[in-house]
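Per your request, structure below.
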């Protein structure tokens, strides 16, 4: 929320977030979480055979998967340890 301070759950680190993403679409697409700050989570995703459409351009679905990954991981970093945040719907043009 704009103007509201984010409080990350204790014990959050890039190493454990990346480890938790193993054996999932996150690992398959090569998404790596690279920075966590006071109010952001940053990552990278290569544009290669895993994320391109047949015309060799970044696939829109891969872009959405990248955005959903950052949003879901970030949300799970702020909810309580007995809660989970999951995406239910996403729209993109």
């Amino acid at each position: 929320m704009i103007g509201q301070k984010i409080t990350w759950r204790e014990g959050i680190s890039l190493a454990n977030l990346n480890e938790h993403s193993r054996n999932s679409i996150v690992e398959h697409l090569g998404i790596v979480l690279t920075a966590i700050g006071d109010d952001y989570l940053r990552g990278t995703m290569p544009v290669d055979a895993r994320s391109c459409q047949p015309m060799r351009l970044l696939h829109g679905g891969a872009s959405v998967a990248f955005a959903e990954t950052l949003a879901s991981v970030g949300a799970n970093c702020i909810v309580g340890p007995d809660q989970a945040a999951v995406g239910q719907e996403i729209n993109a043009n």
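Residues 60-76 form the longest helix (17 residues).

Regards,
D.
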